[in-house]
Specification:
With 292 residues, this protein is α/β, with parallel strands linked by helices. It is built from 11 helices and 12 strands.
């Protein structure tokens, strides 16, 4: 029978909890403007830290700036073992659309802005957001990678990673600096990134899974429902437990509801047995069939 999941992972030179917190949900609708309920959003951050979560993922383009401001006002002075990761490479227009912002000047401005908003002397982890809203997109990204390397040399950034990246882009980055993590979309029902996740595990690169509970479509799958019913838990808990059973994987679920956060934290205590894992192998196939 599988052993209980290791609760920590090495990330950006720190030992952090295997379950992190994504903060896009803490902004307004479509991550524009302040949260609808600032007090509840603050309780999510406080509850996560109190529960032992030590990796918080955010971005200056959430809001813009309002989520970073909330993190600073709620958690500063920060616990010494807390890793706050920010993302660069995107900007927002007046309508809230995400726009590429990958020039050296744009990346440097984003880093400097995040430093100011979060009140930090250096950013522990900066992740370069690539691709499109639809997913990773092939293409060389040498210039923004060089900019991140310069920011590391300048002491403004300590570690850097990639998000929404392809395997070739990860290899390109690895030739320029030590890749601290790869942050891509993966869940028990969304498995297009399985090969890259396996590569990261072999290379010792933490794989940070965003939208780990399926995003807008959720985890609708007979296999997931079966395992959830077997254990008497929420389907989202099963999805997170499946990711926690994968090597070198750090899921970052997000929520603006403190009660929802408490439910998600239950994934740390759910150990999937061999039959569960066999049953869940069909979850991605069910998703593909329903989408066709």
């Amino acid at each position: 029978m599988p052993e209980p999941t290791d609760r920590t992972i090495e990330l950006a030179g720190h030992r952090v909890s295997r379950l992190g917190l994504g903060t896009m949900s803490l902004g307004g609708r479509r991550a524009m403007g302040p949260p609808d309920d600032p007090a509840a959003a603050a309780r999510v951050l406080e509850g996560a830290v109190e529960a032992g979560i030590r990796f918080i993922d955010t971005a200056g383009f959430y809001g813009p700036d309002t989520v970073c401001e909330l993190i600073a006002s709620t958690l500063s002075p920060y616990p010494g073992d807390l890793v706050i990761g920010t993302k660069v490479g995107l900007a927002r227009d007046d309508r809230g659309r995400f726009l590429p912002a990958l020039t050296p000047d744009a990346i440097r401005r984003q880093v400097e802005r995040d430093l100011e908003t979060l009140g930090l002397p250096a950013l522990e982890l900066v992740v370069l957001r690539l691709g499109t809203p639809m997913g990773p997109q092939e293409g060389t990204v040498g210039e923004p990678l060089d900019t991140l390397a310069e920011l590391i040399d300048d002491g403004l950034v300590r570690h850097a990673g990639l998000s929404c990246a392809t395997d070739r882009q990860v290899a390109e980055a690895d030739a320029i600096f030590d890749v601290a993590c790869v942050q891509n979309h993966r869940s028990v029902v969304d498995r297009e990134d399985d090969a890259l996740a396996r590569h990261c595990a072999k290379a010792g690169i933490p794989y940070v899974a965003y939208s780990p509970t399926g995003g807008a479509r959720g985890l609708r799958s007979p296999a997931v429902d079966l395992v959830a019913e077997r254990h008497g838990v929420d389907a989202r808990v099963v999805g997170l437990a499946w990711l926690l059973a994968q090597p070198s994987t750090l899921p970052i679920p997000g929520t603006s509801d403190p009660d929802h956060l408490a439910t998600l934290l239950g994934a740390l205590d759910l150990v999937l047995d061999e039959q569960d894992l066999v049953d869940l192998e069909s979850a991605a196939a069910n998703r593909s069939a329903s989408a066709s």
